[in-house]
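Researcher: Following up on the earlier apo prediction. This time include the ligand. It's zinc ion, with the SMILES given after the sequence.
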Amino acid sequence: MKKYVIPIIAVILILVLALAILPAPEPERCAICDSIPFHAPALVNLETGEVGELEVYEPHPFKVAELNEYQQGGTFSFIHAAGLNGYSDTANWETHITVPLNENEYEEKHFCRTCRNLISRYKKQGYILLDLKDPGKPVAFEIHIDMNHAFRCYEIKATTTETEGELEIIVSGTLYA
Ligand SMILES: [Zn+2]
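Model: Understood. Below is the ligand-bound prediction.
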């Protein structure tokens, strides 16, 4: 019996090592390319796979990822996206959210192989921004202090906060600018 102990331990060790090295299996639904479409920039939590829209304008009542033709504005509301809290201020057509950087562990199990390639450059940050109007063709934007991204009717910038290691993302709508 004793002579089997060492080979069994060796096999278990090899299996554990193989599991650590092998990529995680692809999910049934990828958090990015199987997401619902969003008009505004989307924030992705790379640890939990949560995806949330940093909405600035009122959505269309029934068309997916389109804006309502009439925008009333002048409201203030709290938002919850990708596990984080922020606020939307439509008096100024701005949405703010504070992102803790370097806190999240990247968990590839939430993403398909194609999306893993897309986000591989940005995974250290723990979060990424995406244009998910067409989730089949996601466009990734890195989050960093000097960022100045723009697409459709949105400009995305970041500022430091009083807390070290986090950035406040500001999405400004340019529809009426
Ligand atoms: Zn995907």
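Model: Residues 30, 32-33, 111-112, 114-115 surround zinc ion (CB under 6 Å).
Researcher: Noted. I'll compare it with the apo version next.
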